[in-house]
## 1
Amino acid sequence: MQVSRKPRATLRTINGRPAPRPTWAIFFSNTAPSFATNATYLMTTMFSTQTKMLSTQIKRISLPKSRVSLFWRENGPEYPCKTILLLHGFPSSSHQYRNLIPLLATRYRVIAPDMPGFGFTETPDHFTYTFNSLADVVEEFLATLSIDKYSVYIFDYGAPVGLRLALRRPDAIEAIITQNGNAYVQGFGDVWAPIKEFWASDNTEDDRSKIADIMLNYDITKFQYVNGTPDVDTLAPESYTLDYALLQRPGRREAQLDLFRDYQNNIPLYEKFQAYFRSSQIPLLAIWGKNDVFFIPPGAEAFKKDLPNAVIKLLDAGHFAVESHTLLIKEEIFQFLDDEPDIEISYM
């Protein structure tokens, strides 16, 4: 499925058509107008481009069955096209995809929901926070939007949710992009030790307070972004700052503790996930931050056991590779889904 293409040497094109000269070429052209005019042109062009990149819509829908008020981000062409569902992880929300969405939306309809317990989605009292429940809500959301065919991008918590959807409706999934989204026991890093200890506990209030002190503080929220990222200056501080702020919303502490506890119930499903891979031979791209201490590279490489044609890419990145390597991930997705890449991809 991977095709190596070199950029054209004589004519810069986009999708087979001549591309306009880049802004810098006009700015420094010998035939360009005055410096002041050029400066105005440059700023206007940059503002126009930025405006287009900010066209992602934010939406909310009330789901009648679950009674969840679900928040999501959406972008895409006006013409009919394929759909990509982006499922976020802990402790984030659809906000983690804010930069990727408009890039993918040049070719696809992109849907990124905030799952219950995260972001700006609101749940009714006594909502049960399990990964089955999260999958139920996402399934209801997709049905409400009449989305019956899509590719899915799974990351962290999004993996057990997205793979549950695949077990329920294998005919609906056209391809899987897994970015540090685990489906093998080999993928767990040593930093899971406190959570595994919580699994073995009696789930008393003391047990819950102990894991909350470890996993629900600002430092560990920031750590998940900066650890393993070669250049932390590429990370927008509002990413982890917003994540932490939203974790302080009423009910979020208990919701996250319930999900920590329930994560152990994903592991018995790994055999079913792997059986699905073998039977379906679903096209799969595993694009992995190789410096991630939560889901380590053996988890990416393990997909090859059940999907010999899986494409495995290890990036010099941490857990939130989509924050630091947005453009590369976009290009890999385009290439994986048989679209022509705009640039030649290289890894440093």
## 2
Amino acid sequence: FRLFTSHSFHNELDPSTVPEIMRTNMCNVVLMLKSLGINDLLNFDFMDSPPAETLIRSLEQLYALGALNDRGELTKLGRRMAEFPLDPMLSKSIIASEKYKCVKE
């Protein structure tokens, strides 16, 4: 039993899937690499290099969250955020919950 026709298989499907690194949010990866001391992300030897715009957008988002300073270095908050296996926005929320005394929630 097939879910598509032979014509669809040969003419409509992509020959191979797009690597996940090319189609996903890179903030968590960028934060992890920064925490490991890798600062030159644009020249880092990824197996499949993500678009430069994606890396730059991730750096901007991490800066907006306070994980990076204006020189692109990891802040104290960024180091704590990197300890969580979560999206940086969620890890910042967990860290902020301590400040607002609502960790249990």
